[in-house]
Structure formats: C-alpha cells, structure tokens
Amino acid sequence: MSTFTIFLTLIIIVAFLLVVVIMVQNPKGGGLSSAFGGGANQIGGVQKTSDFLDKSTWTLATLLLVLILLSNVTIMDGNGVGESKIMGGEPEVETNVPAPVEAPVTTPAEQN
Predict the structure, then answer these.
(1) Cα(59)–Cα(78) distance, integer angstroms
(2) pTM of the model as a whole
(3) Smallest Cα–Cα separation from 32: which of 57, 14, 11, 15?
(4) pLDDT (tens digit, 9 = 90+) per residue, 2-30?
(5) Are the CB atoms for 44 and 8 separated by under 8 Å?
(6) How many Cβ atoms from other residues are within 10 Å of residue 71's Cβ?
(7) Distances (CA, A) of 9 to 13, 16, 64, 67, 110
(8) What is d(CA 71, CA 6) in angstroms, rounded to the nearest whole number?
(9) What's the pLDDT tens digit per position in 97-107?
(10) Cβ–Cβ under 8 Å, residues 53 and 46
C-alpha cells in the first residue's frame, strides 16, 4: 500500500467526520447542547457541547487541509519518480517517432 493511498484513506475518514460534526450543529445556535435541556440550566457538563463541536470542526478542517497538502507531496507519476519536471527534474526524452506522410495534393484539373 502506497503512502498516497494511506493519505487518501485518512482524507476520506476526516472528511466524513467533518460532515458528521457539521450536521450535528444547529445553525441557530442550539445544536446538540440544546437537545439535552437547553438554556442555562443544563446538567452533566453538556453546556460545553457547542464549544466541543466548534473546536472539533476547526480541528478536523485543519487536519483535512494538512492531509491534503501532505498527500500532494506523495503523488508520483507513472514512472515512480516524484520530482517535478518543471522544477528541475530530468527533461523528458523524446522518442523517435517518424513524421506522418502527407498525401500529394491534386487539383481536379490534374485528375483528368
């Protein structure tokens, strides 16, 4: 299993978790914390649920960005060479391909 495959798997997992965390939040400020009693009289430490969801959203988003940037480093071309040809890698070697043969152009007057 290549490094890129590992990064890709982690990116998919983090993206799924990010979607789940965002969907749990309520856009009107209530979210999961209001489902357990709402208001100021919350019990059992649930009052910090919105803070946890907010922090986990930012953490997962940052982790997703870092994983995407790191996976970009591990992408290799078909030859297994990870260097960019633009940034100073070895130049491409041209293969000897014969030029296409052009058909002679004839006018209708020459055909008769």
Answers:
(1) 34
(2) 0.53
(3) 57
(4) 888 899 999 999 999 999 998 888 766 55
(5) no
(6) 17
(7) 6, 11, 11, 10, 67
(8) 9
(9) 777 777 777 77
(10) no
Whole-angstrom Cα distance, residue 47 to residue 43? 7
Tokens of 41: 């009289």
How long is the chain?
112
φ and ψ at 80, to 5 degrees? 85, 10
Phi-psi region of 76 (alpha: psi -120 to 50; beta: other; left: phi over 0): beta
From 105, 10, 25, 5, select the one nearest 64 (Cα to Cα).
10
Helices (H), the chain: 3-24, 31-35, 49-74, 108-111
Find out whether 30 and 38 touch, Cβ atoms under 8 Å.
yes
